[in-house]
Predict the structure.
Amino acid sequence: MDKKIIKLERQLKTFELSSRVKFRWRFLVKNGFCLKVLPQKRNFSKYIDYVLVNKNDLVAESEYVKNCLLKGVFWGEILLVERKNRVVASFGPNRVERDENGKMRARPGYFSVLPEFRSEGVGAVLWSFGLERMKKMGAEYIQCSVVKKNLAALKIYFNSGMKINE
């Protein structure tokens, strides 16, 4: 199986939530979705339950939970999208750190949307809100990696202005 990884980057100075994302979020809220922020070192039990219950769809995240969170190692805040008190998407853990050139870089963790909630705009909204939060935390740019075959994620990333960073 081809696991080719694509590295992406985007400057955050000019990033703003688009009117399309804001409109989509209003629609999602009307349909029972809500966004929650779990600050670093808070109770991550809801996120842990989400990952472990869906571990077949969230393989990398389940490794993070097993190897870090369950051992008390935290990377940063986590954003959750819930519907009817059920986590349906997550973005994190996220943190901002100074890179080797002294610039503030957003360090996103994992980004996932459960299969039955894909194609509803949940992922695009969550990703955009995550970028906005990291910009407010002082990040000048963001870098992330994605498996080349993950077309849904690539679409979200490219639509948010991410560019291939070779």
